[in-house]
Amino acid sequence: MMLFHRVRLGLVVAAAAATVVGGAGLAEAATSHTPATTLTARSGARDVGSPSEVDSSAPVIAPDGTRINGLTAMPFGGHATRVGGTTREGRAFSTQSAIEVDINASGARLRASVPRGTVVGLAYPWQTAWGGCQIPGADGYVWGWLSVQTSVGWRSGWMRGDLWSITQHTYPGGGGDPTSLPWC
User: Fold this and answer.
1) Could you give the C-alpha distances from 114 to 16, 88, 102, 128, in angstroms and in order?
2) How far apart are CA 143 and CA 163, in angstroms?
3) Which mean pLDDT values do the consecutive 10-residue runs of the chain (184 residues) have?
4) Alpha carbon of 39 to those of 24, 114, 123: distances in Å?
5) What is the pTM of this model?
6) Distances from the Cα of 143 to the Cαs of 10, 25, 30, 134, 146, in angstroms?
């Protein structure tokens, strides 16, 4: 019986050591109520997709609560890029206050809402994109309110923060670029 307890204790210690080394806790593995988005965030799975999953007719909710349907003629559909934002002339912040961003993954999903909203578009590294603001997502990622230029207009939506980065200009005088989007 004593040998059984030692073997059992040895297994518990080995499992605990593997947990510390592997970065995943026994409690995380044992709880069935852990949201799938938390596990996805920890696994590092990229939020990229294919054209077949895009619902381009789905409305997107902007940070100011405005519904934006489909493609628009200008970035962010001319709506505010963050809540309460207006210029000195009283116009909504649009590209006047937006920050140029680089798309870091092919097929990066633009979503209607955070974190599991309908996929309303895909973005690619060669496309022009602007970021308006960012919010923390329930999945542990920061999500950016972005507008991406397509061949037929601008599509706005929410994109996970690991799929885009602030454009850093390398021309003379370009070192003053921001390092993050403002909070919505």
Assistant:
1) 34, 31, 20, 22
2) 9
3) 42 36 30 34 74 93 87 73 48 62 95 94 93 93 94 91 86 70 90
4) 10, 16, 24
5) 0.67
6) 43, 26, 29, 5, 9
